[in-house]
Amino acid sequence: MSKIAVCGVSGRMGQRLAHLTLEAEDLELVGGTEHAGHASIGADIGQVIGAPQLGIEVVDSLRSSAADADVVIAFTTPEATLKDAAICAEMGVPMVVGTTGFTEDQLRDFKASVSALPCVFASNFSTAMNVLFKLVQDAASILGDDYDVEILEMHHHFKVDAPSGSAITLGEKAAAGLGREFKDVVKNGREGLVGQREKMEIGMHALRAGDIAGVHKVFYGAPGEYIELGHTATSRDAFALGALRAARFVAGAEARLYSMGDVLGIE
Ligand code: NAD
What we know:
Largest sheet: 7 strands, parallel
Number of strands: 12
CATH class of the largest domain: Alpha Beta
Number of helices: 10
CATH superfamily of the largest domain: NAD(P)-binding Rossmann-like Domain
Distance between the termini: 27 Å
Bound molecules: nicotinamide-adenine-dinucleotide
Number of domains: 2
Strand order of the largest sheet: 3-2-1-4-5-6-12
Radius of gyration: 19 Å
Shape: elongated
């Protein structure tokens, strides 16, 4: 039985993580945090997530919430995750981290913080999406430079970062398949007289509408045809169930940074 603490337990992902932890026979929910001043601090987690009373309060201190935990799961903000990673490193508690939107500096600091821990970090915890990551790299490598690569992602209107972490990973996989450095060839959006498409660029486009949980499409186009590979998340459970799979994996793993591909055995 692995004991789980959820950071940001009142959030969209936090609530589903807590719910699915309660439903899993081999997992136990032992804590949940929110930021200081959040309306749910002091409330019962069960009440916050729409489940029966659990006798566990939402707290603003990961130190107390993680004291009994085997794994901390964090889907919050980069700033909060950086602080939580430092606390987990100090306490020696393994982590599963799904937060996106880190700057390069934040990402470097985060990786340094968790370097002595078993930690799974992924821009997308859905099992099917991780299969898509592999297919996108393979397709790019087979199709080669004659096919233009363009990526489209769609998310709910609350999402604060763009393009999505998963769209960036898809771009990195396509670039790897083509032997290109993603950051050198990415082209985020187009507007005005931008001229003809550069042959080597990888286009990224972000749509925001309603409550879309996550749609990603990768197009490879050449004269006369295009092929489209894609993934649609119909609810956040795709990510939450993957994160719980990662939690079971990381609870007994050696200290290092793992991808979801490692958890699934496809990397
Ligand atoms: P959300 O805004 O609904 O939830 C985030 C929660 O974190 C909020 O309740 C917020 O109050 C809380 N929080 C902020 N600072 C905190 C702190 N210091 N301590 C504790 N809690 C704090 O957002 P969401 O839709 O649940 O997404 C959260 C993050 O997860 C985003 O970065 C999102 O892009 C990412 N995400 C990743 C995946 C994946 O598979 N990797 C899937 C979905 C979402």
